[in-house]
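FAQ
Q: What does a multi-component entry look like?
A: The components come first, one per line:
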Amino acid sequence: MQNLIDFIVKYKYWFVFFLMEGFCLALLFRFNNYQGSVFFTTANSMVGGIYSAIGGVTSYVGLGKANKQLEAENELLRSEIHEMKRVLAANRIDTIQFEGLKRSRYHFVGAQVINVTTNHSHNLLTLDKGTKDGIKPEMGVVCSSGVVGIVYLTSEHYSIVMPIINMKSRISCQLKEHLSFGTVEWQFGSAEYAYMTGVPLHIKAAKNEVVETSGHSDIFPSGIPIGKVESFGQSSDGMSQSLKVHLAVDFTTIRNVSVITNYDHAEKKQLEFVADSLMNID
Amino acid sequence: MRHKTRIRLGRMILLLLVQLLVLNHLHLFGYATPLIIGYMIICFETNVSRMSLLWWGFSMGMLYDIFSNTMGMAAASCTLLAMMKPYILKIFMPRDIVESFKPTIQNMGVSRYIWYSLSCMGLLHFSFYFLEAFSLEDLLLTIGAMIGGTIMATLISVCVEYIVHNRKEERAVGK
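Then the predicted structure of the entire assembly, as tokens:
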């Protein structure tokens, strides 16, 4: 202890020296903007480094807590999923029926119309799907508003549809209320109207009565709208009526269509074939 | 002692005036200003206690700082010089001297005195200009100011030594 005191007394001028230098530096940083700014920015960057190091350590230490939080969140989400599954199961029945119905009857392939003409006598429509997507000639093409036409030619990636507004197009149809059959044909002119021919003269169709597919042909299932009755007239031979039909589909703006790829008519065809052959035997 | 203190005080004021009124307006090569205030610390004898040496150096630097608006720079430098001066003097003074030794050009010889003065002034200017620049940018400029100031201050101190001691000798001869 004595030695220590002796040491301090002997070299007290060193302590005084450091004290003075410290005082001078304090003055330097306090009263000189430049030196002060340099010193304090250096000090701050050092402090910042220390703080970031501390932050790294504390975040590592806090991982357990974060884990617990995540676990709780997982638990909550899991219970929510469970609840939603339960609700979904309760509301499932209708969907299943609808889907089953749909699957058993039709299968649709969505396609985009990439080219369409409306001002020729034999208008055609080009789709961006072809045989690769299961499209074959003589398949029906519909869109959300109604019947579009029948697939005419197919290539690997494209197919050409003969729409209602083609003079060669013949689609069997019926009046929805009167259940009277006929054929929808188109005459060169407006793309908005077609004609339903073959309606017996005694049928008094109402204006705006819906014309829909009959289901007689092998192409469309029954009940798909084609258009509405606009006006009445007689066919050229005078034996039947010819109703002017306002088409449900606007061919000038048509874009998304669906092709009915598996309208299951093979069985029906076979049955009819058998019946035909039996008739021929007789 | 009081007499000596008065002489030192007078020397300090004189040096300060010369420094502030003349040398501070001298910018060698545009940036090197000699700090003759260090001369006062160089002149102290060896029997002065380190404590009082520190106080003298500190107050000298402080006064210079107050008047030249360089708060802390010269004070720190002069304190450093006052601290280191005995060690530097030990290198250049004759070894066999026991009593008080006054570092004058006659006592030490010209070359030794110049080396002594150069070392002290070098330390002073190095610390002063380093504190002023306070960065390693423009290092060449800073070093230039250090070297220029050191050489100038050494030359001035040597000249002052010659003048003062020649006059003393003349006075002694005249008596």
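Q: Is there any commentary attached?
A: Sometimes. For this entry: The first strand of chain A starts at residue 108 and ends at 116.
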